[in-house]
Amino acid sequence: MKRITPLLMAVILACAMTCPALAAEAPEGTAPVRPAALYPTEIVETETGSGRRLEKVYLLTAADNPANIPTADFEREGYRYTLLDVTRQDYTESETREHTETVTLDSGTKDMDKIMPQLAATREVTTEDGFTGILTLDTASIAVEAAGYGSSSRTVTATRTYPSLSDADSSLIPKTITDGGRTLTLADVQWLEAGEFYNATASYTGTATSKYATGYVITAEYAGEVVKTISGEMIYTAVFSGAPINAPVQNEPGAEDNSTETQPPEPAEPGSSSGSGLKWLLILPIGAGAAGLAFLGKFLLKKYKAKKEWKEYTT
Question: Is residue 79 part of a domain?
Fold first, then answer.
């Protein structure tokens, strides 16, 4: 019984190994998954000296795979067509429009000779809706404005002379004067006696306030055409050469009239050889398991008969 156990375990293991393989095998007759077919937008057929020329035109987008274009031989109206070449051509549509952009920059001066080097002659742009192009500076559109203003003040002075005054009395001197549009106030008086009269020299002071620009803002416009591609499709053309299927055979001189044309062997169905190999790989473990079970059963039956005969012999 101890010798039987390892053999029984080996048979069970062989059967277990065959089960996943059977489960993984695809059901027989299931068609392979094929990519979506592409259909031509135009077919052009022309006659040639020895046959026909057929062109299939395909319009593909970026989502289409040109490898899915059918290129296999086919038959049509008594002709068999074979691929000669596949050509490709860009087919794009675009939209053009005028576009203007305004740029702004800060400057510490309003001198145009110093401002112009800060403005590029051209500007490459991309709009929010996908238009691109190169714009040119419009020099007539350049404008300079003060960014802000500040103020400053300073003290200004003026003198006035008042001759031939009867007395050195400050009340005889005006307390304020107007100078350059500013009002100045009396600050000091110098007296000089001249006989019976007095000459006065009065000093006046005041404050002058001025406003200045703290900086400048430069604005300029760039204008030109911008372009947007609205479709980017490709034209593929598959060119086939066609020959008559039932064309008469030209025999060599001296050859027998009843010679028959050798037919090429039919191509094997794709995947048949690999499928057969896979089936044999599955059948071999099953056969081995069945043979093991048969051997085990025969061995146990033989041992049982021997036991029975021995028991009958001894009783």
Answer: no
Give the model's pLDDT for residue 52.
92
pLDDT number for residue 246 = 81
* Helix, strand, coil percentages for the chain (3-state, nearest 5): 25, 50, 30
> Is 245 within the bounds of a domain?
no
Collect all residues with Cβ–Cβ distance below 8 Å to 4 and sequence separation of at least 6: 296, 299, 300
Residues 293 and 79: their CA atoms lie apart, in Å, by 60
pTM equals: 0.41
d(CA 208, CA 205): 10
Q: Please, which residues bridge with residue 163 across strands? A: none
Query: 308 or 246: whose pLDDT is higher?
Result: 246
Domain that holds residue 183: 93-231
Q: Are residues 224 and 296 in the same domain?
A: no
Task: Measure the CA–CA gap between 301 and 315, rounded to whole angstroms.
Answer: 21
Residue 104 pLDDT class (50, 70, 90 cuts): very high
Residue 105 in this model has a pLDDT that exceeds 90: yes
Q: What is the Cα–Cα distance from 154 to 211, expressed in whole angstroms? A: 12
**In this structure, are 204 and 113 located in the same domain?**
yes
**171 CB neighbour count, 10 Å cutoff:** 6
Q: What is the pLDDT of residues 41-86, one digit of tens each?
A: 999 999 888 889 999 999 988 888 999 999 999 999 999 999 999 9
